[in-house]
Amino acid sequence: MLHALPAQVARPAYDRTQLQPGIVHIGPGAFHRAHQAAFIDTLLHDDPRWAITAIALRSRDTTDTLRAQDGLFTLKTLGPGSWTRVIGAIRDAFSAQDDPSGALTALGAPATRLITLTITEKGYCLDGNGQLDLSHPDIVHDIARPDAPRSAIGWLVAGLARRKAAGTPPPVVMSCDNLTDNGSRLREAVVRLARQSDTGLAGWIERHTLFPRTMVDSITPASDPAFLDALESELGTRDDAAVCREVFTSWVIENLDCEPVAALGRAGAVLTSDVRGHALAKLRVLNGAHSALAWMGLALGYQRVSEAISDDWLGARIAEMIGQEILPGLAPVQGLDPDAYAQGVLARFANPAISHKLSQIAWDSSQKLPVRLLGTVADNLQAGRPVVHLARAAAAWMRFVVRAAREGSALTDPLQETLLVAGRDCTGDPAGDTARFLEMEQVFPPGLARNPDFRSALSRGYGDILKLERGLRP
Ligand code: CS2
């Protein structure tokens, strides 16, 4: 594949035959390939000991494609300053369902010094309080069969159990998902699951395993057929594992004292003690606004992020939501100017070179709403700050569900069934419909759901979205 590519396409300048496995990555979807794999590719030019073994827990499609291409794939950036580069960081890729013993071997191997994860919000199997949900079907399964896990948390426990049994030090385990306090959440989930079967193991994990917090950022639309076809013309060859993203990329990692974190720092990650602040700002400003834009933009009939943010009315409301309701609640973060950050985010959304579907951002909305918007809502209510825009965004999510239920279309969401039942029950009455959704404890913490100010803001916001659906601006 490599020798036939056009000259302007950069490719690994290191000898891939000399690579040694150092990282196991769980969930090699587009975001991993566009983000962490690119950083690791940079690192491999200086240090061959960090090649990635990519393990998929569910679908084998990506790993099969990657294997057929010897792990190579193309990363194309979009917009000003863009470039195209072949990434060579993935040395092995397979599905844990096809090869469970291979997965355990990789996770348990002493050479694996870092395990990274991009499994999306739902992959953590957390309850409304952010704790591992012991009644989640995959967790129930993993408690009964710790030797043959299904969830990512179960695989981590199984891999760490091997390390303990062999007397080898544990790897560093790093969540690269958009969760509040992702490192701590992951550690607590892993320890909680381990405790169900082996308290000694749980204690060992708590004492010896590092789970650094991270903030990951790069807008990465799904690789649709139009992108893959255009890239095929550019490359002269088909790459079904290719990914695209904006030029901007950022990985901020808690500067815990360990070899993998130091190595990622050499590869361009920013190491700092205040990841919490960076991650919260990113989650609430970028991801919060992204989700709000998706639900409201879909109500207005838009399909893509750049179109929705260019709608004068909607663009102004999103900017107000950030400026009036999100930034005032964020604690100062060293090196981050909140207003400049917000402006930068809005400019990134407007990038016309990126065809980012609002419907993609709306996947798994029931998991995203609590971490992206409801934390800000709770803080604002407590501090006496407004929640008008935030509540309108939450109401837009409810209407998104109602429309899907009416049209009989599927929702990509782990709560799909519950949501569609609720959506079908809705009559168009703002107070009644929003109350129906507020009953869902998996989404709305009961204290927040009872708050009268939030309830009335939601009803008003719901009325606004009904107008938007009719093409009117409230
Ligand atoms: C988006 C994110 O799909 C989504 O929900 O909000 O994937 C977003 O593009 C990234 O977090 C940007 O870093």
**What is the CATH C level class of the largest domain, in words?**
Alpha Beta
Tell me which ligands are bound. D-mannonic acid
Order of strands, main sheet, comes to: 5-2-1-6-7
> How many runs of DSSP E, i.e. beta strands?
11
Proportion in helices: 40-55%
CATH architecture annotation name of the largest domain: 3-Layer(aba) Sandwich
How confident is the prediction overall: mean pLDDT? 97
Model description:
- This protein is an alpha/beta fold and 474 residues long.
- It folds into two domains: 16-273, NAD(P)-binding Rossmann-like Domain (Rossmann fold, 3-Layer(aba) Sandwich), CATH 3.40.50.720; 282-469, N-(1-d-carboxylethyl)-l-norvaline Dehydrogenase, domain 2 (Orthogonal Bundle), CATH 1.10.1040.
- The protein is 51% helix and 11% strand.
- It is built from 21 helices and eleven strands.
- The chain has helices at 30-34, 36-44, 61-68, 100-108, 137-144, 152-166, 182-197, 199-208, 225-235, 259-266, 275-299, 305-309, 312-326, 338-349, 358-361, 365-383, 388-407, 416-425, 430-438, 446-450, 452-469; strands at residues 21-26, 51-56, 73-78, 84-87, 90-95, 114-117, 172-175, 214-217, 243-246, 250-254, 270-272.
- The protein has a five-stranded parallel beta sheet with strand order 5-2-1-6-7, with helices on both faces.
- It is globular and about 65 Å long.
- The relative contact order is 0.09.
- The structure holds D-mannonic acid (CS2).
